[in-house]
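Chain A, query sequence.
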Amino acid sequence: MLLRGEPARPVLLTVADLRERWEQHRVDVVFNCAKRGPQRHTFEGPLLREVIADAWPAVGHRRRKDRARFLVAVTGGDGHHTVLSWAEIDADFGNLPVLLGAVLDGRSLEREGSQLVVPSDYCGARYVGAITSVWVGAHAMPEATAPASGTSPEG
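Chain A, predicted structure.
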């Protein structure tokens, strides 16, 4: 898994790195799969925010309002991807315990690759498997443009 983005140089992490370098959290999840119905699993791994903050301390030490501009995009080996806001996982905001799963139901994910685990989600659409990259970056402020004289924003 390649951890990359705006704050600093890319960092290559293995599932073993995720298991050995950070505190492990365990979460039992149930998510509704559209094709197979409810899925029950137990995941273990580090918190996504801790891995990012250790790789790029500048993200975690920014002022609160500045941190709220950051996005986290996760891509899996099958091309599936999702986006989270930093505020969802930041302890000062949403504080969601989003994991980089390194163990699934007691079995290491070394061969398959780590999995993004969003325990609060009802469906499993943001459970990205075989993570190939995690990108972190700040969302730029959109350009403010005034509508032309005599026109409304609705067109």
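DSSP finds five helices and eleven strands in the chain. The first helix runs from residue 15 to 21.
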